[in-house]
Amino acid sequence: MTAQTKKINIIQAINEAIAEAMEADPKVLVLGEDVADREGGGVVGVTRGLSTRFGDERVRSTPISEQAIMGAAIGAAISGFKPVAEIMLMNFTTVAMDMIVNHAAKLRFMSGGQTGVPLVVRMMTGAGIASGGQHSDFLEAWFAHTPGLKVVAPSNPEDAKGLMLSCIADPDPCIFVECSRAYGTTAEVPVDLAPIPLGKARIDQEGTDVTIVSYSEIFARAKAAAAELAKEGVSVELIDLRTISPWDRETVLASVAKTGRAVIAHEAVRSFGVGAEISATIHEELFDVLKAPVQRLGGPFTSVPFAKALEDAFVVKSSDIAAAARATLATG
Amino acid sequence: MTAQTKKINIIQAINEAIAEAMEADPKVLVLGEDVADREGGGVVGVTRGLSTRFGDERVRSTPISEQAIMGAAIGAAISGFKPVAEIMLMNFTTVAMDMIVNHAAKLRFMSGGQTGVPLVVRMMTGAGIASGGQHSDFLEAWFAHTPGLKVVAPSNPEDAKGLMLSCIADPDPCIFVECSRAYGTTAEVPVDLAPIPLGKARIDQEGTDVTIVSYSEIFARAKAAAAELAKEGVSVELIDLRTISPWDRETVLASVAKTGRAVIAHEAVRSFGVGAEISATIHEELFDVLKAPVQRLGGPFTSVPFAKALEDAFVVKSSDIAAAARATLATG
Amino acid sequence: MVSPTPNRPVPDAATQLDIYRRMSTIMQNDVASRRIVKTGRLVMPYYSPRGQEVIPSAISVNLNDDDKICTIYRGIHDMIAKGVPLRALWAEIAGRVTGTCKGKGGPMHITHPASGVMVTTGIVGSSMPIANGIAWAAKLEKSERVTIAYFGDGASNIGAFHESLNMASVWKLPVIFVCQNNGFAEHTRYENATSVDFISKRAIGYGMPGFTVDGNDPLEMYAAANEAVARARAGEGPTLLECKTFRFFGHVFGDDDHYMTKEEKAAAMEKDPVPAFRARLIADGHASEEQLVEMETQIAAEIQDAIDFALGSEVAGLEELTLDVYAATGAE
Amino acid sequence: MVSPTPNRPVPDAATQLDIYRRMSTIMQNDVASRRIVKTGRLVMPYYSPRGQEVIPSAISVNLNDDDKICTIYRGIHDMIAKGVPLRALWAEIAGRVTGTCKGKGGPMHITHPASGVMVTTGIVGSSMPIANGIAWAAKLEKSERVTIAYFGDGASNIGAFHESLNMASVWKLPVIFVCQNNGFAEHTRYENATSVDFISKRAIGYGMPGFTVDGNDPLEMYAAANEAVARARAGEGPTLLECKTFRFFGHVFGDDDHYMTKEEKAAAMEKDPVPAFRARLIADGHASEEQLVEMETQIAAEIQDAIDFALGSEVAGLEELTLDVYAATGAE
Ligand SMILES: Cc1ncc(C[n+]2csc(CCOP(=O)(O)OP(=O)(O)O)c2C)c(N)n1
Ligand SMILES: Cc1ncc(C[n+]2csc(CCOP(=O)(O)OP(=O)(O)O)c2C)c(N)n1
Ligand SMILES: [Mg+2]
Ligand SMILES: [Mg+2]
């Protein structure tokens, strides 16, 4: 009894999730720059069709005013709505950090539980589209360091849809990170996909020699590395973290307890990145079990450059991940 | 031949550093809300006397407009000035993150080295003064994760003065974090103190059993813990990191290579905090040398609460640090 | 500036008494607060609203229980006028578990949705974007609910003000932006930070009605508020009200007022709106001395009861530190 | 809106030709850029300035070499008009080491202090706060330098606009805020995001002169700019110029223009300012057809030379990836 599936990309997956949520719950709203159909349904079309289907009141294009966008979302959220706000690119969260960090994240706590803030902030990012230094940063570590927020970064259409469904249903503010390089990735996704729980990683492939942990588009590179390593006879346990905060310590630790070796890879700058928390935790929890130090991969300590060759060099490659795995296998 | 000293607190130390820099270099400027003497010379008086001494053009009180403050500082900096900007409290950087992260941090790189941004952003923070959730956060991990910025957090008057002198002289943007609880800390400081180099930690006390790394006001708590531990016969090597980015890997790693054990403590929320980077690095670099997992201490994953008992419980205590040291000594 | 229409609404005697009752409560509450802070029985930064009693009192008599407000650190008068129960208010200020927010928010973050206080923020300007969202929710629900965003003159210079007024106007939101212009932002005089003689003129830039009102005159305030509320309920969109007033006790209680002359302060305090309105009520035959004394005595008793209740209440247990971070408890 | 004084300055024939030369360069450069992007020989998001040639051309003839500008992603016309050498410009766009920024900034971040281009930003609104700082520097140096902040109509709705205009007015900075109002922000029509009929009206809220100018009319633009520059040089502070124009090729080149009607677009393009001014120059006897053809031919050759230079240049070596992060190289 196989579920019916449909081949969709990540753009369509997120679009479907929001549409299904809007259909099921009249409290779900969408707002952001150019999100309505009159303005094209989003710069890459993630929200296309929604305003036509659910009306211009529930799907609102906004002025270029990210503080006002987040404020409107927060105000609506504490009033019982479930807004899905778009901040076009992750770097633009920098003009709305007060709303996100001092308000969305804290209002439940500061009110002693009276005002929950059930909203989703969607944003795209990633190097590789020749946009240069101000449009490409992965800043998920900032949000993961912020109590009160949840942080999600899917790598494929099924997760994108299932996690978005969960984020919209979640009673707390969720940061939903979309990698522009991955938007076109297609896959067969069950038509009646259930929400995928937040905080649960996905073991993409079981293995015994080394655990590779990744998320967002870099996960595809980790998977390519795993394939490469398989040819060399290395059995990789491949984990897609999916949720960065709260991250799935149990799954990751159980895997590394088994393999004794770990590699973590993300696009964000390596220093003080998400990998640091995961690496530190693995070392702290599995001190006696680890066979070699955890290998952490991330962007070099620099801005994302424009020139193609430099931009490509900025992003962790599957060969880097494979090399790190080999390095850990060569020690201990 | 002992240098002449003067007993000053951290407020005075920073004030003296800025005054000396302004005296020596007419390009040094000060701006921020209420920083001029007409407005009281800063909410806690850090910039008191400067406008009277150096004039209202070089020391400017501003509207409540943090983006404009940082923009003015950046524009002046790329024009050859050296502004010392005050963002009153660290949480208020959230309304100016675009200027700090997308501009101050990146302009040198994005211009291919043409426009350096020699500025200092001062800010205070810290729990313990009953200000609640929006005035107390330590967010240094965000800035440390941002290539192009340097991040400094002194624990005592001498460091505060010497590091501020270096920050002002530095050709790149420096985030200077002041803990309000520590402002009143006094010490004898050499009258003609030389700048203290950025990126160099200070070994406050040599020891052989365990390394404790800390910074800002928590350093005092680490020191108290070391004193406590000394009574138990534990020899602590106590390191004040002083600069968080770039952090002094050499000094920390050399110390832990010697002691084989480490505890890291800061006020910021533990998860995805600065301690994660340091812990991960120590484990990665000293895998075979470490006798026990690194102990990381930081705030619980929550907002800073108002009620006194809860607020006190939020901040890492010297007893927590001592307990962590004992825990690491009990293993391995 | 433009002032309200000539045939403006006048409150009847009962409404005038209601305004006075709220004013007197605010004033007496302030006296008690200052006493209790001065004697050190409660520790908190106290932003006295003394002198600004008229504004929220004359506004609130135009509001229903289900109308909402967002206010700021200097907002206890706004809360009292809107009807937050004094017991819960005092208990919050005292950091007790019986407080509006279980003592976790504190004076700067009081929330009490039951009486319409949705957000109290410590970030200058941030009441406005969130108020928009609350107003948007009312509009979506086709309710006649009105939302008030309270803020100060200094806040009119921050970006959030601009984004909020623009969005509210474009979206025709039922929100009223109430600027309590007390002539100072911390220690900065209005004209040293603000580029326009009347903040209400900024309404022109948003195609929005804007008025400057004598914030010490209950009848003028009532009329302006009444019209703005009517406009909002009729779906005609937002209004900007600039209410001129004065804060008697500086920025934060303890302030030394060095930034103004003694004469200036004395002159402003001579216009104390509370005794003035009291006298006017008697002169106009709306109340007798006895009646007012009785009312005031009853208020005094209520305040004393609230204080006793607060100080007799328990503080929150340490488990509260990580509760309410997320709906499903705040686990790390 | 208010328009400039009646006895407004008129450019002499040489100046008019100079304006045209800049306009023609911008237009021809745009034709070449679109060709090269369309054929895929260069890969970048291209924000065509076609249709907006007049604005920076008529402004720049009023500027000296040491006057400064801050511009935005759609700013290549501003750069060309200000005198950035075409070779370095093209090389930057092509990501070559001979580019203004060694190819590291790219089209969205071109910096060329030698010709006064201090910042090109990809963040909406962020040219303004930094322009203030550059103007502040000029003021501190008692220089007569003027700074121009270019931005779009959409940017007039973001917080940075507000903070910048207010601070510039309070500080009487020699800065000119030039809003190139092309009627659209990405796909959002002016009136769907902006609450006032003329952006220049917002100047009222900052006690600043503000004018709406026909941005397609070189003589009107010249006069308005000339007066604003004179005001700035005389120490009389900032000006807001709203320059009405139209962008011929949508937001980013490739855009499908679905958000406007064909007729609307055709009507706007009929007002093409380049051929119109060309005809006028001839009609007014300021130039002959031959003269203009010769000029245009020479410009065409210069552009071709620049393209050849760029495409013949080397790309930066990978070591550049971490250079220029800090003055002393960017080490991790
Ligand atoms: C973004 C931000 N910047 C600075 C501050 C510090 N601060 C707190 S209150 C205040 C003055 C606000 O003045 P005004 O808006 O006039 O309100 P008032 O206190 O006079 O009621 C300042 C600068 C802050 N809380 N938030
Ligand atoms: C803070 C921020 N928000 C959103 C964007 C995405 N964005 C880039 S250009 C643009 C439209 C800007 O319109 P306008 O200011 O009118 O300038 P134009 O492109 O028409 O020249 C938007 C929304 C951005 N770059 N920065
Ligand atoms: Mg004020
Ligand atoms: Mg535009």
Automatic annotation (TrEMBL), chains A, B:
Pfam families, sorted: Transket_pyr, Transketolase_C
Cofactor: thiamine diphosphate
Residues spanning the membrane: none
Gene Ontology molecular function: oxidoreductase activity
Residue intervals of the Transketolase-like pyrimidine-binding domain: 8-185
Keywords in alphabetical order: Oxidoreductase, Pyruvate, Thiamine pyrophosphate
Keyword Membrane: no
Name of the protein in question: Pyruvate dehydrogenase subunit beta
Automatic annotation (TrEMBL), chains C, D:
Reaction(s) catalysed by this chain's protein: N(6)-[(R)-lipoyl]-L-lysyl-[protein] + pyruvate + H(+) = N(6)-[(R)-S(8)-acetyldihydrolipoyl]-L-lysyl-[protein] + CO2
Keyword Oxidoreductase set for record: yes
Keywords recorded for this protein, A-Z: Oxidoreductase, Pyruvate, Thiamine pyrophosphate
InterPro entries referenced in this protein's UniProt entry, alphabetically: DH_E1 (IPR001017), PDH_E1_Alpha_Subunit (IPR050642), THDP-binding (IPR029061)
Entry cofactors: thiamine diphosphate
Classification via Pfam families: E1_dh (PF00676)
Dehydrogenase E1 component domain mapped to chain residues: 46-310
CDD domains given in the database record: TPP_E1_PDC_ADC_BCADC
SUPFAM superfamilies in alphabetical order: Thiamin diphosphate-binding fold (THDP-binding)
GO molecular function, one term: pyruvate dehydrogenase (acetyl-transferring) activity
GO BP term (any one): pyruvate decarboxylation to acetyl-CoA
Function: The pyruvate dehydrogenase complex catalyzes the overall conversion of pyruvate to acetyl-CoA and CO(2). It contains multiple copies of three enzymatic components: pyruvate dehydrogenase (E1), dihydrolipoamide acetyltransferase (E2) and lipoamide dehydrogenase (E3).
PANTHER family reported for this sequence: PYRUVATE DEHYDROGENASE E1 COMPONENT SUBUNIT ALPHA, PYRUVATE DEHYDROGENASE E1 COMPONENT, ALPHA SUBUNIT BACTERIAL AND ORGANELLAR
UniProt-recorded name of the protein: Pyruvate dehydrogenase (Acetyl-transferring)
